[in-house]
Amino acid sequence: MASTPRSPVPLPTARWPSAEEAQASRLFAPGRLGPLATHERTWVPAMVPWRATAEGFVTPENLDWYGRFARGQPGVLVAEATGIRDIASGPLLRIGDDRFLDGMHRLVDRVRADSEGRTRFLLQLIDFLQVRRRPDPATYFARYWRPTREHGARLAAALADDAWRTASDADTRTLLAGAAPDVWEAVLTPREWRDLQHGYREEVGDTDLPHVAELPQVLPGLFADAAERARRAGFDGVELHFAHAYTMASFLSRTNDREDGYGGSRAGRVRLALEVLHAVRTRVGADYCVGTRFLGDDVIAGGSRVDDAAWYAVQFASSGMDFLSVSKGGRFEDAKQPRIGHAVYPYTGPSGHECMPTIRIDAAGPFGRNVPLAARIRRDVRAAGFETPVVTAGGLCTFDHAEGILARGEADYIASARQSLADPDWFLKMRQGDGATVRRCTFTNYCEGLDQMHKQVTCKLWDKLFDADDPTVACSDDGRRRLIAPDRNAGL
Ligand SMILES: Cc1cc2nc3c(=O)[nH]c(=O)nc-3n(C[C@H](O)[C@H](O)[C@H](O)COP(=O)(O)O)c2cc1C
Ligand code: SF4
User: Fold this and answer.
1) Distance from Cα 175 to the centre of ligand 1, integer Å
2) Residue with the nearest Cα to atom 13 of ligand 1?
3) 387: CA distance to ligand 2 center in Å?
4) Mind listing the pLDDT tens digit for each residue in 303-316?
5) Cα 376 to middle of ligand 1, angstroms
6) Could you give the dihedral angle defined by the CA atoms of residues 42, 46, 50 and 53, in that order, rounded to the nearest 10 degrees?
7) CA pair distance 229, 457, nearest whole angstrom
8) How far is CA 140 from CA 113, 143, 178, 281, 323, in A?
9) pTM higher than 0.90 for the full model?
10) Residue whose C-alpha is closest to residue 65's, from 447, 471, 467, 412
């Protein structure tokens, strides 16, 4: 498991193939995702760039971002986690209403044109629950906290003063606002204590909240509506986001203790995911690509492990999922405490470090550390008689490593997020025997830090070629960074 910074692991040396070797490789051989044929086994997984409008519409910057990846002609490009509801979610794409279709159409046209039709373009569909910023204690006790008799009793015990049992709400709030943390911890419920320290966050087990209780009734329809819109917009398929910190992953997690038939046992935990898949499939038809990204391991204490994931994968495969993209961790439960006024970010704790591993994660390093999860899942899926392709990601950045994974049957597609961000042409360069010019990712997560701050995501390596006075280069809102990777041969 990941821990705090260690000495960095060196980047693996890379031997790049000739064009002829690439041509004959598994990596550049055609593949199939159910009804969807792909030109090769290369994959750029979802990455949120923070470039949509505040209302979730596609911007020219989104077009340039996806167009730039498309110029590198990956076999598959997955567009960022896109909200399926019609609710505000900051500058992240949304598809919760037909008014988003125009922009989505333009995005699809751009990727098709810029990849010369070689890249299959999928849309990742996401639902998430409410997360509030960490409050300052005065605001928390004045506005969010609800005093009860039990709180009064615990406060009286903590202060050894029975008068607090019957004190007014106003007096109790005022006292607690100025109290020491050990008093807060003694008086608050564990959940309230967490909300005060990390910010309020809804969980799938909060069935006392009507909108959380009815998620199983609401989500299949919302995912189906969104998938239908994606199809109308021209996307080649959808990826159901069942991974990381979000609603569907929380249903799948062993931590899901709902007692309404949608939690507890494995069958209960997978039930909503299968109902979502069924609703989506019924709506978009058998001839449309529908896959999922889910967790091979939650990493958090008490979460799902690869045994659960492999079991889910067989259920998904037998229910008609067209691909299984395996990720790891990225949960809220073990995230670092945010500063007051900031929201908890799910990639800051041990599970988050596993999701986007850096060269400091541990002695094993980030390079392919999630492959064993994909391999185990693929083995179980094949043993159950299904050919559903499995996608692996996490520190994959050299030809030999990628080709070895495919040759050993550990996965069917090779996904590279940060290496593709550092150099969107890297797959194409390898295919053309030009691997020596690949700009190699350093896996130090400058890009992830920008995501954490909700800033436009860029790569630190691009800025080596940044001239702020060049009017042809789009730059970030702060004027200090290139918004788009340099052209293929720039700076060579
Ligand atoms: C800036 C950034 C944004 C990301 N956004 C998403 C996302 O929207 N959906 C998702 O499933 N994963 C997201 N990821 C995770 C990546 O898809 C990938 O799983 C992870 O970075 C590990 O792969 P890599 O080592 O090839 O980068 C994001 C990663 C980064 C760096
Ligand atoms: S910012 Fe760093 S980790 Fe992110 S893509 Fe660039 S080199 Fe890789």
Assistant:
1) 44
2) 47
3) 34
4) 999 999 999 999 99
5) 21
6) 100
7) 26
8) 51, 5, 12, 44, 44
9) yes
10) 447
Probe ligand 1: pick from 9, 47, 89, 447, max atoms within 8 Å of CB?
47
Residue-wise pLDDT tens digits, 329-384: 999 999 999 999 999 999 999 999 999 999 999 999 999 999 999 999 999 999 99
Domain ranges in the chain with CATH number 3.20.20.70: 19-132+208-465
CATH superfamily, domain 19-132+208-465, is Aldolase class I (3.20.20.70)
Mutate to test the pocket of ligand 1, among 11, 66, 356, 455 (most ligand atoms within 8 A of CB): 356
